[in-house]
Design brief:
There is one protein chain. This protein has one domain: Rossmann fold (3-Layer(aba) Sandwich), CATH 3.40.50. It has a 5-stranded parallel β-sheet with strand order 2-1-3-4-5, sandwiched between helices. Helices cover 44% and strands 15% of the residues. The longest helix is centred in the middle third of the chain and has 17 residues. It is of the alpha/beta class. It contains 6 helices and 5 strands, in the order βαβααβαβαβα.
Length: 138
């Protein structure tokens, strides 16, 4: 099972700051506890210095991660706020028939509604679903 963790990095921040990325390890840990053989792709783990990329490198990584998202078996999108990069990854996954699971309070957002197979309002609700075998249903 190849799982792609999509989620807000810069969001609407101005400049090169990023939001806390603690959610990524929490999601990864939960998945691996139930599915120890899962291959989990975390763009932030691969590119922790991404806000410092020049335009060429940013372009390359943006498209590479969108392709990887589309080639995954499952995409998990963490969206406490809107994220353009995550939306791109979600659409690539959706277009390739990859199930999209969103963790977000923005359940009424059109992108979330249109592209997600499942929407969870909190990480705790998502974790409970994973523990109850939710990923196995995909």
């Amino acid at each position: 099972m190849r799982v792609f963790i999509a989620g807000v990095m810069q969001g609407s921040k101005k400049g090169k700051g990023i939001t806390s990325q603690d959610y990524r390890q929490a999601i990864r840990t939960e998945i691996l506890a139930i599915h120890p053989n899962a291959e989990v792709t975390d763009p932030f783990m691969l590119f922790p210095d991404s806000p410092e990329f020049d335009d060429e490198r940013a372009h390359q990584v943006l498209h590479e991660m969108a392709k990887t998202a589309g080639d995954s078996d499952i995409l998990i999108a963490y969206l406490p706020v809107a994220s353009m990069g995550t939306a791109l990854e979600m659409i690539r996954a959706y277009d390739n028939g990859v199930p999209v699971i969103s963790i977000t309070p923005m359940a009424e957002n059109w992108v979330v509604r249109s592209l997600s197979n499942y929407v969870f309002p909190t990480t705790e609700k998502f974790n409970a679903w994973v523990r109850d075998g939710g990923l196995d249903t995909l």
